[in-house]
Amino acid sequence: MSETSEPAFGGRRALPRNASNAAEDDLPTVELQGLVPRGVSLQDYLHVTNVHLFKERWDTNKMDHHTDKYENNKLIVRRGQSFFIQIDFNRPYDPRRDLFRVEYVIGRYPQENKGTYIPVPVVPELQRGKWGAKVVVREDRSVRLSIQSSPECIVGKFRMYVAVWTPYGILRTSRNPETDTYILFNPWCEEDAVYLDDDKEREEYVLNDIGVIFYGDFNDIKTRSWSYGQFEDGILDACLYVMDKAQMDLSGRGNPIKVSRVGSAMVNAKDDEGVLVGSWDNIYAYGVPPSAWTGSVDILLEYQSTKSPVQYGQCWVFAGVFNTFLRCLGIPARVITNYFSAHDNDANLQMDIFLEEDGNVNSKLTKDSVWNYHCWNEAWMKRPDLPVGFGGWQAVDSTPQENSDGMYRCGPASVQAIKHGHICFQFDAPFVFAEVNSDLIYITAKKDGTHVVENVDTTHIGKLIVTKEVGGDGIKDITDTYKFQEGQEEERLALETALMYGAKKPINTDGILKPRSDVAMNFEVENAVLGRDFKLTITFQNNSPNRYTLSAYLSGNIVFYTGKQETLSLIESSPFILKEELLIRAGEYMGQLLEQAYLHFFVTARVNETKDVLAKQKSTVLTIPQLIIKVRGAQMVGSDMVVTVEFTNPLKETLRNVWIHLDGPGVMKPRRKMFREIRPNSTVQWEEVCRPWVSGHRKLIASLTSDSLRHVYGELDLQIQRRPSA
């Protein structure tokens, strides 16, 4: 619809959608109600000469609103909380005869009933929850106002005007970008939907710009730091651009439910030209490998500047960028890691592993996948659309897995509702419930076409759910926030509730007991270092006086963290004795082990006399070399500091097309350097000079990626001192 067309519906003019924070129309500086009589000069009336917003980092506005860390020279405040401005007039203000008000406008088609045009009247006393301006100081020709915003106000960048009433109409200040004001969600305000009442948690989930993301394997948890960088120059505008790109109506941008749902769709580029292109195929010729990113800043700034999706991301990158988006806007958020996460396409609470009659996995029939781990986010908010008790942490996931209401997105889903099986409540609760609660079913596919359920593992999926601890880099186990302990009455009730609300279980597994064979089987994988041989040991124990013979089958796979498999040349099939040791040679896995892959071993054995089937599977994470970061010089704000990144190639092959990324929020802007090759056992060094601008605990984070080696990380904790006052 063109801007000039005016179709009428029921006598009312349809305005175009107001879905862009960046688009704007200037309000008129003069609105006359008629002709001005001859001899009357509008300049004789009260006239605004200047407006002061107290927007420096050290000013009370930014300090009181916890926005002093933003690298932005505009005023940034949080909704529902008062702030100060000063207006200078051409003469002293007289409240008995002078009338003025402050106006805030967002978008191109402002309407008061949509919250996009906000007239702020001067009132004797401010009222909580309502817009208002109170004169707190009157001095000569200046007036200082305390302005109270609504805790339900739209979140975004507003244009500000001052309007003065005269007998002949309104005189309004002209458009001045210097008075633009950002208004954000406010976890410190009790009336705000994102209110969080714990100060340490607010410090962690809103103000901390460096995080820790957990990955690896349940038995070998790895950590890497991530620079959220929500206060870095340009990031706030980039986050607002994400909502503009989604064409999200401005009137909905005060609702954290809607904002987080739009964000979960827009952080991936699957169907809406969003921020990040996901790729899990090991081919990254047209972009940056997911493992190379050290933080969100480069990704968001590139997206805003190019107006095109950035390549490439995987689950922890999506989660890191989404966390930046949420925290930057003021929504408390954290990154979650679920070990053994089910990707269940039909959310039937079952992961079906089909076996051949000899015990080998049937890859054609096995369609469900179990991710070694999966990262998503939680956002803190009230849920007035749900029954009481289902507010608080909400699961939101921006990794494109399944379609939700026509787009690849997930959540917000109440974590409390998921725990109790109330998957009827929006959004996408059945999918998240399946990710942490599915049963692992081993099914033998007979040659006659029948299927026999051999074993049911109810504890494998959702084995451990973790996040970063508050105030430290340690791990916090939050599994009990998603599910009750296996075997508890509450756990069975939650499952029955989920089934009642429509979760499907097509194969009847009730009453199936785990096979209790007289023979027990186990196997251990030796701690393995990348590029070296290691041992795998399989043992059998006969718990009866009977004599048995066994036929066993061992398969080895490269398993990517999503559960996708690449078969190794390692396959052993033989009658095993009581204990068998196998040597896994580096040459058998190095050619395929690249993008965060694990060695996955699957052992099945059949007791020939009883036909019992024994099955075990284990993954091992190889130890990967690290980057070493060193600094020299004073660790002080405004002082030059030399950063050195060092790496030694431990492999027997030359690394080619090596990129090293270096980042440190508040210490240095993200940088990267390429080395064409690094020969075996040789060392490379890279030096950069930086000048920190933020004091306190900081981190330097580095990553290395090459054609044949990825997921190499290094980090260094710093304590940046304040610059002594003169």
UniProtKB/TrEMBL annotation:
Places the protein is found: Cytoplasm; Secreted
Catalytic activity as recorded in UniProt: L-glutaminyl-[protein] + L-lysyl-[protein] = [protein]-L-lysyl-N(6)-5-L-glutamyl-[protein] + NH4(+)
Cofactor: Ca(2+)
Domain Transglutaminase-like: 307-400
Keyword Disulfide bond among record annotations: no
EC code: 2.3.2.13
InterPro entries per record: Ig-like_fold (IPR013783), Ig_E-set (IPR014756), Papain-like_cys_pep_sf (IPR038765), Transglutaminase (IPR050779), Transglutaminase-like (IPR002931), Transglutaminase-like_sf (IPR036985), Transglutaminase_animal (IPR023608), Transglutaminase_AS (IPR013808)
Domain of life: Eukaryota
Sections of the chain in a coiled coil: none
Gene Ontology molecular functions: metal ion binding; protein-glutamine gamma-glutamyltransferase activity
GO cellular component: cytoplasm; extracellular region
Keywords: Acetylation, Acyltransferase, Blood coagulation, Calcium, Cytoplasm, Glycoprotein, Hemostasis, Metal-binding, Secreted, Transferase, Zymogen
Cofactor binding, per record: Binds 1 Ca(2+) ion per subunit.
Binding site for Ca(2+): 437, 439, 486, 491
Region entry Disordered, spans: 1-24
PROSITE patterns: TRANSGLUTAMINASES
The protein's enzyme class: transferase
Entry annotation: catalytic residues: 315, 374, 397
Broad class of the protein's primary localization: cytoplasm
Biological processes annotated in GO: blood coagulation, fibrin clot formation
Family: Belongs to the transglutaminase superfamily. Transglutaminase family.
Quaternary state and interactors: Tetramer of two A chains (F13A1) and two B (F13B) chains.
Physiological role: Factor XIII is activated by thrombin and calcium ion to a transglutaminase that catalyzes the formation of gamma-glutamyl-epsilon-lysine cross-links between fibrin chains, thus stabilizing the fibrin clot. Also cross-link alpha-2-plasmin inhibitor, or fibronectin, to the alpha chains of fibrin.
Name of this protein: Coagulation factor XIII A chain
Organism: Ailuropoda melanoleuca (Giant panda)
Lineage of source species: Eukaryota, Metazoa, Chordata, Craniata, Vertebrata
Designated gene of the protein: F13A1
